[in-house]
Design a protein that fits this description.
61% helix; 16 helices; Arc Repressor Mutant, subunit A; 3 domains; Rossmann fold; 362 residues; alpha/beta; single chain; five-stranded parallel sheet
């Protein structure tokens, strides 16, 4: 997700520009707005953003001065200028400040979208480059952790995977050294390095970037960015790990793949309900016993185990994103008995809900 701060002293323009930025992509979010550079800096003292889209001529503090402050204090951020002034000196100064683009008002939607696309690409490229440098430097000293992953993938052992992911996240966070926004790129590169290691197993897989839709609010207070980026990294590692295992099992015939996909999709939508296996079998037009056997063969998990896994993932996300009590989370993911829920959570993640939250936030 790319979080954007929109700065313009004209409320109507600020609102229309925010709407245009939000419509550009479902992975682009307007995290905040401000009426001038001083207000923008005040907002940034308490919130996180990846990109600043700013006007130049504003009261109190103009856009160029704002970009200078952002460069010095928030070096991970990029900036672009949207201005009514076709002035060479303004454009030259913005380039000197490493602004990505200088777009004239009235704003052309195609030009704005192209500029946002370039900004997203540059953010990703720079973070991938920085993460790759860390990986090259640190990976040789963490061979034991790599070997743990390879063993789990080759043996299709998903039982202890959640704890392995948390252990890996702790290592990647140490590498990032406070630059939490690098955790996503580090997670992707970690998975890519595993694919390279598995090449000798005739292993071919191209991982997608993945999305963090639904994780975290549009506006991220600074005190939550560590837990947010850790949660995104956990999701990335988790999704990647299961794709690695699926690929290791080998390609399956398409009707089987389609049926298993239907079952998983239904469970993803209804995991908090009491799922009836016969109804599930009717959806995929299979005998109930055959469906259960096929699911176990293809996933190395029973359907009930898979339902528990989906519930635990949802509970984990709620635990990290909200201040809800454990019993409230338990009820919302399908368990009336909070003690039973806590036992399942500990069995899945290797620690109780409260211990997991404490470890992720410590």
């Amino acid at each position: 997700m790319i979080r954007v701060l929109v700065v313009d002293d004209a409320p109507i323009i600020r609102e229309s520009l925010s709407a245009a930025v939000a419509e550009f992509s479902d992975t682009t979010i307007v995290a905040g707005t401000a009426g001038n550079g001083a207000q923008a800096l005040e907002w940034l003292e308490g919130h996180y953003a990846d990109l600043c889209v700013t006007d130049i001529r504003m009261p109190v503090m103009d856009g160029l001065e704002l970009i200078g402050h952002i460069n010095g204090k928030y070096p991970w951020m990029k900036s672009m200028v949207v201005s009514s002034y076709d002035d060479f000196q303004y454009a030259k100064h913005s380039i000197q400040l490493r602004a990505l683009d200088y777009i004239l008002k009235p704003i052309d939607e195609e030009m704005l979208n192209a500029a946002l696309h370039r900004a997203a690409e540059q953010l990703q490229e720079e973070r991938t480059r920085d993460a790759a440098e860390l990986l090259l430097k640190k990976l040789p000293q963490n061979r034991a952790l790599v070997n743990r992953w390879l063993e789990q993938i080759r043996t299709l052992n998903a039982v202890t995977l959640p704890l392995l992911i948390v252990d890996t996240l702790d290592v990647l966070e140490q590498w990032a050294a406070g630059k939490y926004y690098l955790l996503n790129a580090l997670s992707n590169l970690w998975l890519s390095s595993l694919i390279e290691e598995l090449a000798s197993d005739k292993f071919v897989l191209e991982l997608q970037e993945g999305k963090d839709l639904g994780l975290g609010e549009a506006t991220l207070p600074l005190e939550t960015i560590r837990s947010y980026f850790r949660l995104c990294a956990v999701r990335r590692l988790e999704e990647g790990a299961y794709r690695l295992m699926d690929t290791m099992r080998g390609a399956r015939d398409q009707p089987t793949v389609r049926a298993i996909g239907q079952i998983k999709s239904y469970i993803a939508e209804h995991y908090s309900e009491q799922i009836n296996l016969q109804e599930l079998a009717d959806i995929v037009a299979m005998n109930k016993s055959y469906m259960c056997t096929l699911f176990k063969q293809e996933t190395e998990m029973t359907i009930w185990s898979y339902i528990v896994t989906e519930r635990m993932k949802a509970a984990r996300n709620r635990l990290m994103q909200t201040k809800d009590r454990v019993y409230e989370i338990a009820n919302d993911v399908g368990y009336e008995d909070v003690n039973h829920f806590s036992q399942l959570f500990k069995k899945h993640f290797g620690m109780t809900p409260n211990d997991y939250k404490r470890r992720m936030n410590e």
